[in-house]
Amino acid sequence: MKNKGILFISIIGILVIFLLGGKTTFAQGVILSVNPPSAFQGETVHLIIQGSETDFVQGKTEVYFPDGYIEEGASVLVNNPELLTVRIKTKDDAPAGDCQFDIITNTQKLTVKKKFEITELAGYPEVMITVFPVQSVYLSDFDFSNLRNLPLLFTISVYSADHNYLRVYAELSHEKYGVVASANKTLKNLPPESIFTFDNRQFDSYDTEKAADEIIESALGNGTIPPGLYTYYVSLIDTNNKVYTVTSEFYISESVSGIDMIAPGTSLDSDPEVIYTNTPYFQWFGGLVEYNFTLYEVLEGQSSADDITTNIPVYQMNDLTSASCLYPNFAESLEESKKYAWQITSGILTGSGTKEIRSEVYWFIYQRSNKSGISLDKIKVYPDDINLLPGDSVQIKVDGFDINGDTLKVECEWQVIPADIGTVNDKGWFVAGDKSGTVAVTATCGSKEDYITINILKKE
């Protein structure tokens, strides 16, 4: 079949799409995916376009299709700098085949090739699956004894051609562990050349007994199905037992355990760190697309996150696309000897909706001058961000500088964030663990901190 299945990403609540554990870096911006990758002639669809290092801005981003493919009136909604949604209606006589189009922003022109196809309805049945990819899926999402409360995971559309009776068989499988679940549905009395659509809550029967033991065991810890590549196999079977099949894939990355704080400050179970600048540079580690930063004043007697985060914020910044921010000069000035606390929040899309991710709360005390007499002004950790394979190692070095830029000898403490992806000794020698992923290695030298990012790649 020409149609290879449709991946369709929900417009509402999307913060990040398939790859949660870090972004691939491209110098000039690249389009990673267009979902759905195809549409019927005359069909209205929402194209979800995911990029990397793109700069999509609402009102300043346009999508241009060639003449003869879509009706006028396409609308563009920018979800975030790396995700936009375009609502289009393909023309009834649009040419079948690949449809190349351009995305133009203030700084980039991106040409999208061979990622979207117009499909012609012919004289045989067609089936397509519309998947709503999420960043985390819970076993409870497949509780078929409670269909009304199941989240919407996918829809299936069937083009009947000249058949009035068709059977649909759907199966979800993990690349390593095998089948998760399967379902069946019979379609009767279909009008000729009609399109019938239903979702994952409307099958006639379901079978979860096929689920691999590894799937169940993997989910016992946190209730979510294991990360990896998943494939929906959908078969359409006619009365002559002729089978029409499509597949659709989505990826769930390693589970998000949280956002790891780097600097400034310490956790609430330690004495607050003293800092000596009223424009601190906040750093954290998470690998998500967007973050929200909030700074609070800590009132007398407060020492718990619940108490502190109910205070009126001193300053907030939302929709940050990097894991750091400089406290701006125009924000409310920090007052000497006062305690402040900060927190980072974000969100991931699960089968049951958007789940908020909260970092722990870090706190610090601001002093107007460095009363400890430390002359260290800044540090620099190097090499720059690098890629390693599991088991590889690298020597990480750090230089200290005074206010004049002269080099100082520094003694530093090292930390790996998250701690389960590698180790670092007191000399800065880092050894990658067995897991792939992205890790930050931080150096803390007195009151100064800096870090590098290391990507641990999968072995081929």
Can you give a write-up of this model?
This protein is mainly β. Strands 21, 22, 24, 25, 27, 28 and 29 form a 7-stranded mixed beta sheet that branches. The two termini are 31 Å apart. It has 2 helices and 39 strands. 2% of the residues lie in helices and 45% in strands. Mean pLDDT is 79; it is low at 1-27.
Q: Kindly provide the radius of gyration, computed on alpha-carbon positions and rounded to a whole number of angstroms.
A: 26 Å
Distance between the termini: 31 Å
Average pLDDT, all residues: 79
Beta-strand portion reads: over 45%
Report low-confidence residues grouped into runs of 5 or more: 1-27
Query: Any idea what the shape is?
Result: elongated
Tell how many strands the DSSP assignment holds: 39
Fraction of residues in helix: under 10%
Largest sheet: 7 strands, mixed
- How many distinct helices? 2
Main features:
disordered N terminus, 460 residues, 5-stranded antiparallel β-sheet, mainly beta
What's a quick, concise take on this entry?
The protein has 460 residues and is mainly beta.
Ordered list of secondary-structure elements with their pairings:
Elements: E1 6-7, E2 30-35, E3 38-40, E4 44-52, E5 62-64, E6 75-80, E7 83-89, E8 97-98, E9 101-104, E10 109-112, E11 117-119, E12 126-131, E13 154-159, E14 166-174, E15 178-187, E16 195-199, E17 205-207, H1 213-219, E18 228-237, E19 243-252, E20 260-263, E21 266-267, E22 273-275, E23 281-285, E24 291-297, H2 305-308, E25 315-320, E26 324-326, E27 339-350, E28 353-358, E29 362-366, E30 378-382, E31 386-388, E32 393-395, E33 397-401, E34 407-408, E35 413-417, E36 422-424, E37 429-432, E38 437-445, E39 448-456
Parallel strand pairs: 1-12, 3-11, 22-29, 31-39
Antiparallel strand pairs: 2-4, 4-7, 5-9, 6-7, 8-11, 9-10, 12-13, 13-16, 14-15, 14-18, 15-17, 18-19, 20-23, 21-29, 23-26, 24-25, 24-27, 27-28, 27-29, 30-33, 32-37, 33-34, 35-38, 36-37, 38-39
